Amino acid sequence: MTDLLELVALSRLSPHCWRRAAECLRAGDSAPRVLQRLADALWPDDPRRLTELRADAADALAHAERDAIAALAWNDPAYPVALATIVDPPPVIWTRGRVDALSAPAVAIVGSRAASQYALSVAHDLARDVASCGLVVVSGLARGVDSAAHRGALAASGVTVAVLGSGVDVMYPPEHAPLAKQIDERGAVISELVPGTRPDPMFFPLRNRIISGLSRAVVVIEAGEKSGSLITARCALEQGRDVLAVPGSVLSGRNRGAHGLLRDGAKIVESADDILEELGMCGKDAGSPTPAPCDPILACLTPGEPSDLDAIAEATGLGTAKLLPRLFELELQGAVARIGGGRFVRIDRSC
After folding, report:
1. Which domains does the chain possess?
2. pLDDT by residue (tens digit) across 196-232?
3. Which of 179, 216, 251, 305 is most buried, most CB within 10 Å of its CB?
4. Phi and psi at residue 198, in whole multiples of 5°?
């Protein structure tokens, strides 16, 4: 893929640079130019740092090739459209398993690591039921609710995606290595971190934006007041995704975070039907609804002529929170296509 080395190098910069990099790439700047500009700002008196950064990127690509890890660049048409629309998408996604699993309609199921048996059962059963309806289940492969959700999707012979806070070849927690291998066969294990990266506390809150970014909705199960799942829920709201929560016991205090989401307007989930209803799906294999014949987004797009997000937002009057998930739905319906650089083009249909 053109510019892959530079995009890997961009991903090696500090996280505070990623949003700026995404803005420049969306504006049409090439990856080499963006990398050079950021390097000049970061290390104006040390040009060797850029040379070292490119060498690190080359090493990461060699590592990935050796271990059969796919590097999916931001400008690759296979890069998931849902993730490309967030404000700070990873320049590169490192992937084990099936790349096509990243482009199907998905729901994130997240919650407590120290989960009760009730939460584990709910996570497993919800994931099993939504996976049987054709939705991909996204979670973080952590202990507790996350792993229960992955196992529930696998129990339905469904597809599930695990987003790691380490390189995809560094398993954390280590006891989930067999589960990750199962996920490889049915879905994908992914990370924005280069292969070989060890887990670090700072990486886990960052990966939560990817969990929500890949998904049409986030379901929170048994989250305390300081749960990392609330970070995922906040990311989802900022990205224009739906947030849902499962009610639990008020006696233990371990679900106060999820109850807080419910008080703030999150939809209550008691069964998979509640999730499907929120997504506009009414049953198994229902899929996405057909776009209205005169959808305002389609009306402002000209077949064959790419438009970026700012132009679409100005033409439709829709804010980003409403525009991004709608574009995602139209992509899934085959009404629009995303091309390199996060731009969209309408498929030639009558309106």
Report:
1. 4-97 (no CATH), 99-278 (3.40.50.450), 296-346 (1.10.10.10)
2. 999 999 899 999 999 999 999 999 998 777 778 888 9
3. 216
4. -80, 150
